[in-house]
Amino acid sequence: MGLGALFLLSFGGGLAGLYSYRIRYLTTEGVAERSIRLELGTAVMAVVAWLTVFTGSWIVYPWYRAEPDGAKFQLLANPNTADWHNFAMEWKEHIAWIAPLLATAVAFAVIHYGKDLVKSAKIRKGLIAFFTAAFLIAGVAGLLGALITKSAPVR
Question: Is the whole-model pTM more than 0.70?
Answer without folding.
Answer: yes
